[in-house]
């Protein structure tokens, strides 16, 4: 299991910048916390139904549908809508879709204006021919990454290019700018800082002051785009990381784990734990070990 | 019509390094003179039959077959085997097949050893499944370059990747090194110098001396790999360029054209012309204008 918080930072390896992450109830979508990056991402719903959020707007996704996440968009899961589900998140370096930012494919199609990337419409369904073709390609990508036959890297590149080619030809992208880039930019900054420094003692008021906006305004904007307040986001992130460490670092003391995740107060950590799992941290760990 | 001598130097444009050149009896394969480059090239026989040479070995190609030319291989046409024919030569920058020389696709498949590029077997026929699939992709590439629909660049990239993927999976490449790289390297150097400086007064003996080999040895090696002596190659190249200029620079005097192609002696130029076309240069020009 990869680290749910760090996973989004490195997509595959430098030599082949591609990664597919699978989420199931055992690795629940609550771990798919709000983040953003300069790459495109495609979320493919294998079975069941989950609601995702992009820049504050909810998109319920059912089986065999996909969500296109454009560069710099803040995206996260909101809730699982069926008890059983699985989805795959595909993230890839832009070099797999265009050779360089100097290339004609990039300048003509991906980044046609100086201002912004081509922003595809979010939901791909089987209702249109381009959606159907794209979904077929995306499903193949997920399978290829599992079986990894000879030259699967080339085939994945071919399929990613096909998806882009399909959607561009079907005009499945938005020419209008609907987002408030100014608000988005400081929410992105705060999100980046929280994800990077969650283990430390973070003073939200001081961060707002550094960013030159009022704390209230920052909180309101953050909640609007991310779906929860910065405080709750930070707390959830710390909790998720603690759970991750309790699963993977069997010999680390619980107090040590709590501290390494930014919980300075052990009783507060225990309270959070009981609220979310109905168990104390030790009960939870024993329960995990017994599974 | 592009310049038959220079055409191989720039393949498309930097932003989309891809070019397809068509050859017919009106733009005959004699103009497809020996050259080499670090890119892969694919020659697709649309109709009729033409024999090509690669590093001194002849490959007769019939309709709907293709020739894979690997990086650094010296390639040229030998003769047309039918009176009517057409073939398309596809040349593309390597960046269309692998994102960079750092990428996994490059290091794992294209350049697996430090010594050399993957060298595909030369002739693609419809007799194998991989040949058939590759030929279909190559034919589509030729058509796409003519119609150039939206995103045709992406589709061409997809098809080129498919050809490589197909051939790699079918093991349609040679693991053994059959060439004498030492001999090839100075033939390549001489070829490069002749193509670059054909308009100037070239002393072949002096070039051999500069390269530190005997003139006789150089001529023998050159003829073995290119199919004709350096002297004949140079003469043919000059003649072709003169014909090209006579077709495209209508107002340039014949003596001026002869000189700009490296013919210092007008009467020698006229003699060459009569030998090859049965006409004097002026008769040839009038004949061209009347067509």
Automatic annotation (TrEMBL), chains A, B:
<dbReference type="InterPro" id="IPR018060">
    <property type="entry name" value="HTH_AraC"/>
</dbReference>
<dbReference type="InterPro" id="IPR003313">
    <property type="entry name" value="AraC-bd"/>
</dbReference>
<feature type="domain" description="HTH araC/xylS-type">
    <location>
        <begin position="188"/>
        <end position="287"/>
    </location>
</feature>
<dbReference type="Pfam" id="PF02311">
    <property type="entry name" value="AraC_binding"/>
</dbReference>
<dbReference type="InterPro" id="IPR037923">
    <property type="entry name" value="HTH-like"/>
</dbReference>
<protein>
    <submittedName>
        <fullName>HTH-type transcriptional activator RhaS</fullName>
    </submittedName>
</protein>
<dbReference type="InterPro" id="IPR014710">
    <property type="entry name" value="RmlC-like_jellyroll"/>
</dbReference>
<keyword id="KW-0804">Transcription</keyword>
<keyword id="KW-0238">DNA-binding</keyword>
<dbReference type="GO" id="GO:0043565">
    <property type="term" value="F:sequence-specific DNA binding"/>
</dbReference>
<keyword id="KW-0805">Transcription regulation</keyword>
<dbReference type="GO" id="GO:0003700">
    <property type="term" value="F:DNA-binding transcription factor activity"/>
</dbReference>
<dbReference type="Pfam" id="PF12833">
    <property type="entry name" value="HTH_18"/>
</dbReference>
<dbReference type="InterPro" id="IPR009057">
    <property type="entry name" value="Homeodomain-like_sf"/>
</dbReference>
<dbReference type="InterPro" id="IPR020449">
    <property type="entry name" value="Tscrpt_reg_AraC-type_HTH"/>
</dbReference>
């Amino acid at each position: 299991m990869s680290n749910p918080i760090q996973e989004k930072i490195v997509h595959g390896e430098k030599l082949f910048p591609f990664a597919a992450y699978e989420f199931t109830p055992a690795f629940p979508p609550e771990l798919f916390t709000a983040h953003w990056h300069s790459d495109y991402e495609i979320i493919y719903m294998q079975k069941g139904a989950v609601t995702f959020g992009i820049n504050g707007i909810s998109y319920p996704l059912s089986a065999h549908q996909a969500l296109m996440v454009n560069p710099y968009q803040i995206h996260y899961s909101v809730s699982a809508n069926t008890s059983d589900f699985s989805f795959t998140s595909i993230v890839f370096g832009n070099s797999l879709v265009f050779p360089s930012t100097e290339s004609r494919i990039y300048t003509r199609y991906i980044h046609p204006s100086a201002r912004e990337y081509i922003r595809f419409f979010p939901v791909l369904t089987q209702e249109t021919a381009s959606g159907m073709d794209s979904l077929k390609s995306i499903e193949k990508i997920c399978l290829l990454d599992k079986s990894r036959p000879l030259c699967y890297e080339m085939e994945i590149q071919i399929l990613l290019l096909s998806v882009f080619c399909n959607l561009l030809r079907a005009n499945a992208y938005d020419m209008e700018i609907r987002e408030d880039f100014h608000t988005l930019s400081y929410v992105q900054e705060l999100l980046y800082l929280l994800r990077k420094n969650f283990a430390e003692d973070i003073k939200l008021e001081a961060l707002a002051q550094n960013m030159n906006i009022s704390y209230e305004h920052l909180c309101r904007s953050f909640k609007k785009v991310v779906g929860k307040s910065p405080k709750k986001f930070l707390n959830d992130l710390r909790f998720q990381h603690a759970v991750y460490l309790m699963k993977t670092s069997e010999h680390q003391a619980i107090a040590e784990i709590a501290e390494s995740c930014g919980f300075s107060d052990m009783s507060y950590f225990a309270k959070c734990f009981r609220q979310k799992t109905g168990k104390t941290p030790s009960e939870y760990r024993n329960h995990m070990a017994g599974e």
